[in-house]
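Retro notes, item 3 of 5
We never archived the inputs for the iron/sulfur cluster complex last cycle. Fixing that now. Sequence and ligand:
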Amino acid sequence: MGDMSKNYRLNFLKEVEANVEEGEWVKMCMQCGVCSGSCPLGKFWNHPPQEIFMMIRAGKREEVLTSNAMWMCTSCYNCIVRCPRELPITHIMHGLAHYAKRLGLIPQQQPTAKFAQLFWNNLSNKGRVNELKLGVKLYFMNGIGEGFKTSLKMKDIGMGMMKTKRMNPLEIVGGHGLEDIKGFQAMLKKAQELEDQRIATPRP
Amino acid sequence: MMAVAATVETILVVGGGISGMTAALEAAETGKQVVLVEQRPYLGGRVTQLYKYFPKLCFPTCGLEINQRRTKQNPHLTVLTLAQVTGLTGAVGDYTATIKLAPRYVNERCTACGDCATAVETEFDDEYNYGLSKRKGAYLPYRMAHPARYVLDPAIIGTADAEKAKAACKYDAIDLEMREETLELRCGAVIWATGWQPYDAAKIQPYGYDRFANVITSVEFERLADVNGPTGGKIVRPSDGKEAKKIAFIQCAGSRDRNHLLHCSRICCMASMKQATYVIDAFAEQAEINIYYIDLRSIDRFEDFYTKVRANKNIKFIKSKPSSIVADKDGNPVVHGVDTEGYNRYAEPHDLVVLAVGMEPAVNQNDFPLALKINREGFIEAAPENGGVFAAGCAADALDVNRSAQHATGAALRAIQVINRVARAEV
Ligand SMILES: Cc1cc2nc3c(=O)[nH]c(=O)nc-3n(C[C@H](O)[C@H](O)[C@H](O)COP(=O)(O)OP(=O)(O)OC[C@H]3O[C@@H](n4cnc5c(N)ncnc54)[C@H](O)[C@@H]3O)c2cc1C
Ligand code: SF4
Ligand code: SF4
Ligand code: SF4
Ligand code: SF4
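Structure as it came back at the time:
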């Protein structure tokens, strides 16, 4: 994966426009603040969307790419429906997260990023989400002690799910998957190749 | 049947607001025949509903009085009220307009004595006060209405109130047999001055105009502040009549917003600053005003007004478009948002919130009787394909009164040129 960012050192906005999904919209932001005020999670972040967009324009590259803001977005779309300039804010936030990951700039111990990785590993393994394994991994994401505590807390729900056949305890060994797992993985590989190619080709 | 003499040398003016009146008078005072068609029962349009004018803070009544006098004195001007243009055919130099006249049920013998209003009982929302008060079914639309003639609400026709009104009139001015009429007029040029209407604030869902009594619009606030308005000029809030000393003005309510109106309505920054002075006049040191804005657009000669308002320490400017309004348990509207200068989250309770609503064209794009070049905001463009139809004032753009009048004079000049061409050809 080539690091294209060198070409844009002096202009982070251009870098975002070229590399971040929907990044070309950032310059359309008029700094009205509606998105920040509308975001149900905004108060828990370092930087609300409006501020992120201003920081991009101000060239604050490191601060933006290492911010936890885009990882906290829950895709509620409140901001998008209200933005007077119709910026695809949610998508830009995800685009920024994606770009930060490509550059290896995810903030340490960022829980959403960690969970996203767990989810992807789980899914890409057999082409189906193994909820039992994912759940266990998630409970133990922050260490053994906390894992056991969470497991105990969730015990009754788990038992209930098993009773109503919503969860199969045998999933913990192997688990269900696609019939043609090889074909599925070849598809993922191809998709990754195409994505790498897209990233390596500078946008006009 | 009403008879109006008109020829291809006549100029038809549609809409009798400040723009239509100005255009009609400018043309008529050069000796041209002019017919002015207004759908309300009186002339003046929306400026009649303003308390004061920015930037001088003078009263609109003064300019209106002058225009009314000019209207009465001019022999070349015919005014039709309660009239609408429903059809327009032809081309530059020769148009035929179809005009629908709604019955007033009161003839020219009316002296505006008011006895009919005393006699009738049923009450209706007073449209002049944007529904903030009631009026009778026999009424003078507003204090200074021209023509100074009462109107019967069509809803009382056929009821006992209609008979009571007729019985009360000593001047035989009430004619319950009046019916809608349609007439056709020829004209050589048309000035289209149908003006604007406030954007429907209920469509801005997060601001809760339709949910919270104490969230009102800027046009309603003009009525509240007016000494001749529904509260006698007392600035009180609708829910409980409490004095509204702490007021939020929210700018760009519906304007500059791709979900609502695309354009900047251009006057609302100035209108809110003007309205802030109403609050200062009423409560002096006790007034607390927050103006929430994206940018302040008080351009060129208005800069001085802005500087003056800005100097008042009871008026604060907050650079932020609020994201929502909720009501607290006492009915106070609480304004929520994040400000742009520091990204601070706020939740500020007020007595009253005034939404500076945008101006949209009064006539919907699809309702013009003739194909005209309309821009994407719905205003009429100046374009050769419009032939002999010229827009004036807010039918062409969101304008203040001064610019509307200038624009209307320009339209009058264009119409006069068409008529002069027609006249030369006829000789
Ligand atoms: C809150 C607020 C405060 C304002 N304060 C100020 C101020 O302080 N100073 C200032 O300079 N400007 C102010 N303005 C702007 C001012 O109101 C406009 O500039 C002015 O009203 C424009 O006049 P007009 O004649 O173009 O339109 P209008 O006043 O809308 O007149 C149009 C007329 O056409 C009639 N009409 C509409 N459709 C038809 C039809 N189909 N057939 C026949 N007749 C029709 C209407 O009934 C109306 O009488 C303010 C605006 C707002 C919203
Ligand atoms: S709502 Fe849209 S225009 Fe306003 S600050 Fe957010 S992104 Fe920018
Ligand atoms: S979509 Fe994301 S950024 Fe937008 S309001 Fe929801 S959580 Fe906030
Ligand atoms: S209609 Fe008759 S009663 Fe009513 S105001 Fe006019 S003159 Fe007076
Ligand atoms: S004049 Fe001011 S309040 Fe009105 S739309 Fe323009 S910027 Fe917004």
